[in-house]
Write a sequence for this structure.
């Protein structure tokens, strides 16, 4: 079964060797969110070596919008959104193909905030038809970063999709990239409030 992996990327080409080993065998779609020249060429070379798709944004369109750009190019039955700071062990793609079923979202990290379960967006997969029915990630409602995965999973649950935690052989270098991005957390509290507003409106409807 074909798996497409969509990864937004900004600078940090030092991650390329581990990432390339991790994703071999998948259709790889990297969305470059405005990396500077020295990183851009290394990222592009890696994607070419993988036979993947390279999408270049001259400015940072952020996580959700980049994911949606990648989804448009994905041809696999399963589409996996994965950060660039994730290391996957051998057998990873086989596990994804075996575990992901129609009607649900799958990922290695299931958390609960405000009483609502969600799969962390650094590694989350579903059938392509599921993503299309959800209309991808909401790149308009939220500004900055964070809470887009909470929103995605809440909308999925509202539509009857299940959220499934799976034991995939992955390691996340947590906040490796966002931790080095100035202002990455600036909109987190605002996005949290907007998410809760959306949930309350949905519950009242």
């Amino acid at each position: 079964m074909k798996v497409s992996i969509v990864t937004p990327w900004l600078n940090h080409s030092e991650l390329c060797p581990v990432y390339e080993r991790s994703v071999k065998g998948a259709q790889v779609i990297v969305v470059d969110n405005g990396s500077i020249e020295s990183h851009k060429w290394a990222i592009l070379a890696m994607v070419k070596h993988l036979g993947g798709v390279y999408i270049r944004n001259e400015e940072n369109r952020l996580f959700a919008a980049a994911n949606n750009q990648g989804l448009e190019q994905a041809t696999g039955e399963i589409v996996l959104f994965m950060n660039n700071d994730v290391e996957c062990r051998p057998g990873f793609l086989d596990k994804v193909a075996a575990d992901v079923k129609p009607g649900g979202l799958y990922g290695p990290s299931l958390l609960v905030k405000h009483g609502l379960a969600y799969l962390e967006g650094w590694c989350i997969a579903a059938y392509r038809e599921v993503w299309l029915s959800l209309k991808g990630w909401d790149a308009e409602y939220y500004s900055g970063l964070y809470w887009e995965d909470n929103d995605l999973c809440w909308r999925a649950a509202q539509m009857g999709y299940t959220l499934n935690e799976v034991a995939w052989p992955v390691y996340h270098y947590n906040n490796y990239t966002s931790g080095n991005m100035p202002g990455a957390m600036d909109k987190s509290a605002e996005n949290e409030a907007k998410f809760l507003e959306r949930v309350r409106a949905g519950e009242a409807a």
